[in-house]
Amino acid sequence: MHKVRDRFCLSAVGLLGIVVFTSGCSGSRAQTASSGVPDLSGIWLGKAVQSLSPSDPTAKKPGAEGDIPYTPWALARMKAERPATGPHATLENTTDPALKYADPDGYPRASIHPMRFKIVQTPDYIYQLWEYNESWRQIALNRPHSEVPDISWFGESVGKWEGDTLVVDSVGFKDSTWLDPIGHPHSEDLHITERIRRVDHETLVFDFTFDDPKAYTKPWNGEVTFKLKTDGIMTENIYTISDELNFRQRFLNEKPSIPIRPSH
Amino acid sequence: MRNRVIALGALLLAAPLFAHHGGTSLYDTSKELAQEATVSEFQWTNPHVEVGLDAKGNSGKVRHWLLELPSPPVLVNQGWNRKSLQQGDVIKVSFYPAKSGASVGWLLTLTKADGSQLVGHSKQQ
Predict the structure, then answer these.
(1) Among A33, A226, B110, B118, which is disulfide-ready with B93 (CB 3.0 to 4.6 Å)?
(2) How confident is the model at residue A32, as a pLDDT?
(3) What is the pTM (predicted TM-score) of this model?
(4) A230 to each of A13, A25, A94, A144, A199, how far by Cα in Å?
(5) Residue B7 domain-assigned?
(6) Is B16 a member of any domain?
(7) Which residues constitute the domain of residue A228?
(8) Is the residue at A249 inside a domain?
(9) CATH number of the domain that residue B80 is part of
């Protein structure tokens, strides 16, 4: 099992071109990295979250939660969305960009699948590697945002340590992504502040503040908790056209528009 | 170059088809079926793991079912792996059938011949 874990760590190094802070991939687990800051590295798993609304996590009343301060623009958008999972699911008419177009989930939605992510921690950067669609983001430490941040799926993130808490500031999000599977919207002006804390050896808590004046009349908060997984396993999950065509042919009896890649 | 243009065109044509399976919307979540069945195939694949089953109905006629499970990373957390089922395994299975009447379903739980149980999708509230 250690070989598998080490191989994954080496793959991460190859993929990202970084030097992995060795405590992140060793068999022993330290609460505090040798640089004196907390060690967040490891594989983490949370529960499936339908909605980031603290009062309505299972999304029973999307758009009328009471704790989400929608602007009229955001409320209209929220009411028009048709999620593809959960109690309000639709198949043919979903507007979920991640499922309709295979768009990347964006952030923080990427973290709230019931799938794992790995944190790789170096002195200058922290990397979050998700199983879901094999996607990742980097958090640059102790640096300002770039002068003109790109608009991107996962935004631009910078962070700094405040005691035992990693405070992450992110901007530059593509406005087509949803914050969560129920469809909470945002604009390109979205600014996320995260306070990330390892509250005990087994538990990592992300506290989000969403500040987006176009979408919300005031900042609002969501919180997600993750548990440490020590088996070293990260499983591939890549969503391809060929797999989707195969699924739709077999389950929906739909004729594929292009020949399905044969599996050899 | 021409081949690249054709390939890109095919990709664009295929893109709208990504309206993906849609979770439970295909299935009748008010109706949970329980069957004893023989595994005919087990595909450990994305977007969803697939199980093919042959189940004998009350009339004695065998019906072939194709059931979907969550994707591999989710199942790993529930104790599955790509060898959890083998062709020929006799299992007891519960699932939501398709609303359309097609022989496809949404797998909830299965019990193997040795009594061990594996959980697939969560039941809908």
Answers:
(1) B110
(2) 64
(3) 0.84
(4) 20, 11, 37, 34, 17
(5) no
(6) no
(7) 2-233
(8) no
(9) 2.40.50.140
Checking A31-34 for CB contacts under 8 A at 24+ apart, the result is: A31/A198, A31/A201, A33/A121
CB contacts of B72 in chain A (<8 Å) are 235-237
Cα→Cα distances B81→A48, A84, A97, B45, B71, Å: 20, 26, 30, 11, 11
CA dihedral A222, A95, A129, A5 (to 10 degrees): 110
Query: How near does any CA of chain B get to the CA of A64, in Å?
Result: 20
The domain that contains A11 carries what CATH number? Answer: 2.40.128.20
Touching check for A131 and chain B: CB below 8 Å?
Answer: yes
Residue B103 lies in a domain: yes
Q: Is B83 contained in some domain?
A: yes
In a domain? residue A75: yes
Residues A90 and A259: their CA atoms lie apart, in Å, by: 27
Number of domains observed in the structure of chain A: 1
Asked if residue A252 belongs to a domain, the reply is: no
A47 to chain B, closest Cα gap in Å: 10
pLDDT digit string, tens, across residues A162-207: 999 999 999 999 999 999 999 999 999 999 999 999 999 999 999 9
Mean pLDDT of B37-44: 97
DSSP alpha helices (H): ranges in chain A?
A: 2-16, 72-80, 97-100, 241-252
- A101 at interface of B, judged by CB pairs closer than 8 A: yes
Model confidence band, residue B10 (pLDDT cutoffs 50, 70, 90): very low
| CB contact (8 A) between residue A237 and residue B46 | yes
Q: Please give the radius of gyration of chain A, using alpha carbons only, rounded to the nearest integer.
A: 19
A149 close to B (CB below 8 A) = no
Say how many C-beta atoms besides its own lie within 10 A of residue B61's C-beta.
8
Q: How crowded is the C-beta side of B8, counted as CA atoms within 13 Å?
A: 5
A contacts of B76 (beta carbons < 8 Å):
233, 235
Nearest-CB residue to A85 (from B11, B13, B23): B23
Residue whose C-alpha is closest to residue A26's, from A40, A5, A1: A5
Residue A136 covered by a domain: yes
B123 touches chain A (CB under 8 A): no
Model ipTM? 0.80
Whether A67 contacts A220, CB under 8 Å = yes
Between CA B118 and CA B78 the distance in angstroms is 8
Q: Select the residue of A89, A115, A253 nearest B25 (Cβ to Cβ).
A: A89
Cβ contact, residue pair B26, A94, below 8 Å: no
